Amino acid sequence: MIGAGAIGGVVARALRDGTVPGATLSGVVDPAGPADLPVVSLDELLSTSDLVVEAAGQRALAEVGPQVLAAGRDLLVVSVGALADDALLAKLLSAGPGELHLSTGAIGGLDLLRAAARMAPLSRVTIETTKLAANLVQPWMPADQAERLRTTAEPVELMRGPAREVTAAFPKSANVAASVALAAGDWDVVEAAVIADPAAELTSHVITAEGPAGSYRFEIRNRPSPRTPTSSEVVPHAVLGAIAALAEPRVVFR
Fold first, then answer.
1. Domains observed in the chain
2. Which residues, at least 6 apart from 202, have a Cβ–Cβ distance to it below 8 Å?
3. What is the pTM of this model?
4. Is 205 designated active site?
């Protein structure tokens, strides 16, 4: 594991406790050094692992992802939003012999979008993400805007535009927009929106797509992570599901 926070910590402890058949925890790379997990260096991790899970953020993926793949280790990426950077994606894809895997994270329907886009290019794709307003404050926001966001009594649309731009502006909240764009196979066709709602007890993602294959609409409503409300509580379990499928593939939807 690279990262042992709200996502990586749940995954690492589940692996440590033997809840994923065929998979064990070889170590965690995390400067915070959680006392109940085996903290190791990256070199140690690469020498003892077959699969490395990145759960430390977009910067960490850019810094260590190519090294992991070049060492012949497979890499499961949680911070999919980092792949809005075409240069980074190209670097990861060419860094092998390790294989690159992407976590589905907080959403579903990606397999159907990919199938529809493979049949014929999608003509329009949208994703609207609604989260609790206070959890969407960003470092780049002026102080007065951040304060209005913390105290608003009404829903506020913070940004709407190309998925690549929205992903860059909300790196901890818009990984899903990147996942949709990658599944659709075309960043330019995907419009993303981020909406702040002071009454949003659940995080919602509404995905629509249209093309020759058909018309699609998915609505996902997830409980936020108690530790890191910018993420959904289900995300580490999506990661564990991916690890289980890689460790002991039995009946797996692909």
1. 8-105+234-247 (3.40.50.720), 110-222 (3.30.360.10)
2. 221, 222, 223, 224
3. 0.90
4. yes
pLDDT recorded at residue 251: 61
Among 73, 131, 164, 205, the active-site one is 205
d(CA 56, CA 33): 13
Q: Which two three-digit tokens encode residue 101?
A: 């895997």
Tell me, what's the pLDDT at 226? 85
Confidence of residue 189 (pLDDT cuts 50, 70, 90): very high
Decide: 14 and 1 in contact? Cβ < 8 Å.
no
